């Protein structure tokens, strides 16, 4: 069999040019690992931030569009939408806590009246003009 000499097992020093290349590669490896670690921490931080944030209500006290309204467990919500006298409802639509009444006013103009149930009042009265 072949014998392995001790000279073959010892590492021989690299020439100066190869040593410079090796140092650059080690430095590049360290920088790459650092950048990947910072990126991973940023992603994990964003995930934790998203899970710990609560939904914030708008400043006007209304609900976010499409959000659910809390209903008391002991009784249903009761609200009165005070529409103008003589208003004839043609259609009704619902978005979260807002109810839209589309119809004709007493003077014949077409109107959209939006009532917010959570606020208990009319939040918009839009006159619709067709051209």
Quick synopsis:
With 131 residues, this protein is of the alpha+beta class.
The order of strands across the largest sheet is 1-2-3-4
Strand content: 15-25%
Distance separating the two termini = 102 Å
Largest sheet: 4 strands, antiparallel
Give your account of this protein's structure.
The longest helix has 37 residues, at 16-52. It contains 2 helices and 4 strands. The model has no long low-confidence stretch (mean pLDDT 83). Helices cover 31% and strands 23% of the residues. By secondary structure, the chain is of the alpha+beta class. Strand 1 and strand 2 (98-104) form a beta hairpin. The protein is rod-shaped and about 110 Å long. A 4-stranded antiparallel sheet has the order 1-2-3-4, with no helix packed on it. The chain starts with 5 loop residues before the first helix and ends with a strand.
What are the main properties of this structure?
131 residues; alpha+beta; 4-stranded antiparallel sheet; 4 strands; 31% helix; 23% strand; rod-shaped
Topology:
Blueprint (H helix, E strand, L loop, with lengths): L5 H4 L6 H37 L35 E8 L2 E7 L5 E7 L4 E8 L3
Antiparallel strand pairs: 1-2, 2-3, 3-4
């Amino acid at each position: 069999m072949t014998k392995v000499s001790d000279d073959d097992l010892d590492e021989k020093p690299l020439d100066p040019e190869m040593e410079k290349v090796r140092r650059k590669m080690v430095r590049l490896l360290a920088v790459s690992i650092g950048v990947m670690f910072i990126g991973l921490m940023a992603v994990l931080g964003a995930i934790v931030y998203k899970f710990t944030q609560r939904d914030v209500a708008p400043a006007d006290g209304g609900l976010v569009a499409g959000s659910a309204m809390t209903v008391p467990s002991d009784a249903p919500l009761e609200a009165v939408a005070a529409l103008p006298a003589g208003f004839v409802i043609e259609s009704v639509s619902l978005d979260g806590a807002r109810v839209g009444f589309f119809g004709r006013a007493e003077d014949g103009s077409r109107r959209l009246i939006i009532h917010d149930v959570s606020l208990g009042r009319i939040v918009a009265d839009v006159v619709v003009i067709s051209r």
